[in-house]
Amino acid sequence: MPEKPKPSPVMDQIFKAYDIRGTYPEPLNEDVAWKVGHASASFLRSLLTGYSRSEQSANRLVVGCDARQSSPALTDALVTGISSTNTETIDIGLCDTPMIYFAINHLGTCGGVQVTASHNPAQYNGFKISGQKARPIGQDTGLWELKRIAEAIAIHKVTVGATRHREDLWGPYRDFLRGFMDEGLRPLRVVVDASNGSAGKMVPAVFDDLPVEIVPLNFAPLGEFRHEPNPMLESSLRELRRAVVAEKAHFGVCFDGDADRCVFVDQTGRPVHSDLITALLVPVFLAREPGSTVVYDVRTSRVVVEEITRAGGVPRRERVGHAYIKKALSEANGVFAGEGSGHFYFKDYFFADSGAMVFIQMLNLLSRRNVPLSQLLKPLSRYASSGELNFRNEKKDETIDKLAERYGQGEIDRQDGIRIDFDDWWFNVRKSNTEPLLRLNAEAATQKLLEEKLAELTPLLGKPETH
Length: 467
What we know:
alpha/beta; Alpha-D-Glucose-1,6-Bisphosphate, Chain A, domain 3; 7-stranded antiparallel beta sheet; 6-stranded mixed beta sheet; 16 helices; 23 strands; 36% helix; globular
C-alpha cells in the first residue's frame, strides 16, 4: 500500500478509502474542488499506458455530476482546476455515475470525475475518480498520490487553460445499455424510486418506449431528498414497498443518489437482500461464460458460493468496496460480481458497477421466467441472515483480535476485518473506515441458531447503533 501523505486537516477529513467526500461548504468547497481537479488531471495523465487513441483523446477528462444543489458550483471549480493543467474537459452534465464509466470508454479519455456523495444526505458532496478504461482510483490505486498533489497546491491561478465542452451522450449511452436487453420483453409493471437523484434523469432517458410500465416515485432531481438516497435503509424503502403492493407491480427498485446501486423489492413489497439477487443472476452469467469467475465480498451469504459452484463457476471472495471488487473482477477476467450493499458489477460493463445494468438483467429474467419474483427467490432463501448491524467501539482492532481468539476453532479469514466460518453458521466483523464503528454480518442454518449466536456476539462488539 502506498505511504500515506502528511496530515492535512481538510484533506484528511475528506479523502476516504474509495473516494473523496464531505459536508458542503465545510470542509468540502470550491477551493478543494479546484485542487482535486488539478490533482486528478495531473495524476490521471501520468498513468496513461499503451494508448491507441489520438494524443488529443488522451488529453481529455470526462466530468459529470449528481443532482445535489452544491454540484454545479463544485463542478465549475473542478473543471477550472482541470483546465489549469491544460487538460480538456468533456462535461456530460447531470448523470448517473455509471455513465461516467461509459463515457471514459466511449470517448477514450484518460479518466473521469463524478461530482457526487452517492447515498449520503443532501449536505454532503464529493468526487468519484476513475482512470483510463474506468479503472477505479482508490487508496491502493492512486488516491493517496492524488491527495499528495492536492495538498502541495498553495495558490491556484490559471495562467494556461484548456477548453471545456459540454457533450450530450444520452443517445449513445441509451443504445449501449439497450443492447443488453432482450427483444420482445413481455409487459411488466415496475415501480421505480429514483430517490430524487440521478436515476430521475437516467431511467426516462434509457427505459422509454418499452413494453414495461414504469410507475415513477421521486423522479424530480431536486437536490433535496424526500427520503435519504440510501436504499439500504428500511426508511428509504417504505414508500416503494407500499406502491408496489398498491400498483400490483411485478417488482420494485430503489436507486441510490448517483444510481450506481439499487435494492429490489418483490411483488409482495418485501425487500430482497442483494445476496439473493447475486445468487439469482449467477446462473444467467455463467451460462454465457461457463467456468468463469464470480466475485463476491466477505459479507456474502453462503448461498452465493453454492450457486456459483453449482453453475460450474469459480467463486472469489474479496474485500468490501467498489475499488477492490472492480480490481478483482478485472484481474480474474470474471463475468459478474455482487456486493451486499446493492452494487453489481459486469464484465460487459467495463468490469464496473451499474444500477441500470442490473435493472436490465432483472427485466430480462422476469420476462423470460414469467413467474413471481418471490417464487424465483424461494429456493435461495435457505439461510437466516442478520443483515448489517453496527456497534460503536473505540477499540476496534483489539475487539477483532479477541473474536479471533474466542472463535479460533472456526475457519478464519482476515482479509477484511474477520470472517469466521463454522459448519452451520458464520459471521464477519469489519471496521468502519470513517467512524468508531464495527459492522457485523452473521448467517446461520436456522433462525433459532442465528438468534443464539447473535446473543453471544453482540455483547462483545460495543454499543448497538440504531438509525
